[in-house]
Amino acid sequence: MISYSIDQLLVKGKEAIHQDVIVKGWVRSFRSNRFIALNDGSTINNIQVVVDFENFDEETLDQISVAAAIKVTGVVVESQGKGQDIEIQAKSIKIYGGVNSDDLQGTILQPKRHTLEFLREQAHLRFRTNTFAAIMRVRHALMFAIHQYYNDKGFFYVNTPIVTGSDAEGAGEMFCVTNFDFDNLPKTEDGKVDFSQDFFSKKTNLTVSGQLEAEAAAMGLGKVYTFGPTFRAENSNTSRHLAEFWMIEPEVAFNDLDDNMDLAEDFMKYVIQYALDNCKDDLAFLNDRYEKEQSQKPKDQRSDLGLIERLEYVLNNKFVRLTYTEAIDILKDSKPNKKGKFKYSIDGWGADLQSEHERYLVEKHFKSPVILFDYPAEIKAFYMRLNEDGKTVRAMDVLFPGIGEIIGGSQREERLDVLRKKMEEFNVDQEELWWYLDTRKFGTVPHSGFGLGLERLVLFVTGMTNIRDVIPFPRTPKSAEF
Amino acid sequence: MISYSIDQLLVKGKEAIHQDVIVKGWVRSFRSNRFIALNDGSTINNIQVVVDFENFDEETLDQISVAAAIKVTGVVVESQGKGQDIEIQAKSIKIYGGVNSDDLQGTILQPKRHTLEFLREQAHLRFRTNTFAAIMRVRHALMFAIHQYYNDKGFFYVNTPIVTGSDAEGAGEMFCVTNFDFDNLPKTEDGKVDFSQDFFSKKTNLTVSGQLEAEAAAMGLGKVYTFGPTFRAENSNTSRHLAEFWMIEPEVAFNDLDDNMDLAEDFMKYVIQYALDNCKDDLAFLNDRYEKEQSQKPKDQRSDLGLIERLEYVLNNKFVRLTYTEAIDILKDSKPNKKGKFKYSIDGWGADLQSEHERYLVEKHFKSPVILFDYPAEIKAFYMRLNEDGKTVRAMDVLFPGIGEIIGGSQREERLDVLRKKMEEFNVDQEELWWYLDTRKFGTVPHSGFGLGLERLVLFVTGMTNIRDVIPFPRTPKSAEF
């Protein structure tokens, strides 16, 4: 008697015929008092369990209903139905947990179509639905691929701090972390809140990026990456923003911007290929879902490519690389710009690009992922390396169809004097970042890195459009449920 | 001309002789104006670069000093010295970043012995030291092994939330996360702080454990694990506690406590074996370090085993499994108890075990890792499954030599009525945890899981004794530097 996950058993397929097996899972449907569709989360596919009701007592049969948890002991036989090679002829069934059908009303476990919004309200139960479970398995595969990629390339995973005493990173608004009793805040003599009496003896925040610490690590270990949660206290209630999200940030000593672009492209292709290779059933399901969704859109808003086609397209094409300046020229001369179709029209050099511009370049002009580089210094962060022209920096953004910016990175300013000048210009506190400056004092080297938002990647690979549908328990303004 | 990491080149060894290569790294020493020991972080080993000073200009030679960053172009030759197969005969050297020798004073980069305390003060530079870099590489290998183990076993990595609206988990004191302006706290009519006006419209905290959310995920996906930062706002300034640390929490539907013990043992052995297989040089270095440290201790406090011997010992022995009740009997009759040598003497059944008791069982009595299970219900969490005796729960702790408790876990209470009663007794808010109770309503199943503190594991494998030496930027009371 072998205990199998449903995935294992279906992979074995006809080889398993005549074997006595045990499977455990949740009932997805029970037709004609005879056919159970059983799922255990290991795969999107169910195994059919055939119950000869003559052989089972009524009490057991009564409890076999949608969402119930059962253990089936039986023999694998060739399936008579279509769509499956094998099924299990049940010899005995143990009910782990039944379901009160009244309780089931109003839950997303009821066997009918539910909106994604409704699923979000019951995030604790949506792991039991086909769509969300498929997304979670793909998310897992992508995360594993990320670790495998960097491990294979000789990178070291470094856990940069979540609670940080620094607010100089400048990537966005920060949450405060405190151990104060709010009804009894200690004050300094001049009436200010006295953070020296807080847990860490200073004001502390949740990190917005591990980059600066990762740079310090790369200056000793050579090639490192971070992979952890990051936070933004921004009141953006959109389908693209989360207050808490996961970010991957590789940082490599001795890499210049070209190396950085090579790494980003190679990395993205690796993880997408991994998902295609390892999530076939889930991606086929999500591909169908995507097509249905597209078919309901007005014709001019439909995507040219199916979900899997889009992934393959990214794999098979070299990412177009061009400078910000070249991009501005293209955009200035573009039809939508001339016809006033952009919300933000492109008049000249220097402005930041909006999502509409990025998507025009990727989806209409080049029809390919694009890496833009050498951005105006003024619209990018203080730590990016200044070019010889004195006005652009070695920044890069990777732009993807349907997503826009998916990766942002740069070669870092390794010259101590230039870095100091930039920090002055950008009003970044040099005393607070004494340790960051130190990394430029003791054997400074050219180095580069980038950040990838995990949820943006999962959106792209699964074809979902709302970022709340690709993370288990989304954190957004006014919402920290579960 | 091939660019190699030093690790790659040393692995190639004599095969690389006569090749023209490029290596980049930081100077660890420069002897006789001729021999550079170069390290790039990829390995604990240096490559020797031989400089014929007649062929280089003085300016370049002047800048080759400890901690400087250089690029070497040269040919691989057989080494004349001992301790290495190959070395590089330099043809050209580019200085990336020199070092001002005055600046170097007072830093941990000075080529001499430094205390671990001093290294901690310059945590941003300690990636450049042999000891800390070795620890970081081992930490990386362990983290990768953890992901690989669970992926291979069909588990899905689930990111449970860091910011949580729940404070019912009961694993310890929590930090508060807020977006309030402290000088201007909104108040309700009755003068309390009005958290409904905070970012998430409620009081939110940093998570102490992802277990409850992982249980919800396991009720759909079957086998899951979390791996992320967790937090304790406890004022424990010890060598074993951090305010921010990383935890791994597997959770498996249909697993009972025996399965859970099997999983914990198999998992620990896998990751330790992985480190032994993949971190040979770093562990050899740390083994030497450990031996030196042991030799400086009084004889009766020395460990019987070397570091690597201790790891192999864990691999080669089955973990002893016994109940809390059996452990109490052993401890009551033990020599140290009878002679009053325990700080907390064992008088009878019911008390929680202290570290001294756990270590006595592991290090003196069984001389083996031990899994204790079936603890008194009163000293364990509300969610642990009640045994038939009505007074013990299906809890388990895995105890390791030199560490004490390294894993804590349990079979979870899957019976809704029993769980509710326990929550009442433990004063856990059922309304707040409505969603957790839901998972027992819709097809509840037996399930189990445990938590492993990553830093405890790294301590055990590296032989370090202070937890601040095994995480890049430790967070402790009064300290959130970098």
From TrEMBL, chains A, B:
This is Asparagine--tRNA ligase. It comes from Profundicola chukchiensis. Belongs to the class-II aminoacyl-tRNA synthetase family. The keyword Membrane does not apply. It is found in: Cytoplasm. The lineage of its organism: Bacteria, Pseudomonadati, Bacteroidota, Flavobacteriia, Flavobacteriales. It catalyses: tRNA(Asn) + L-asparagine + ATP = L-asparaginyl-tRNA(Asn) + AMP + diphosphate + H(+). Its main location: cytoplasm. SUPFAM superfamilies: Class II aaRS and biotin synthetases (SSF55681), Nucleic acid-binding proteins (SSF50249). GO terms for biological process: asparaginyl-tRNA aminoacylation. GO terms for cellular component: cytoplasm.
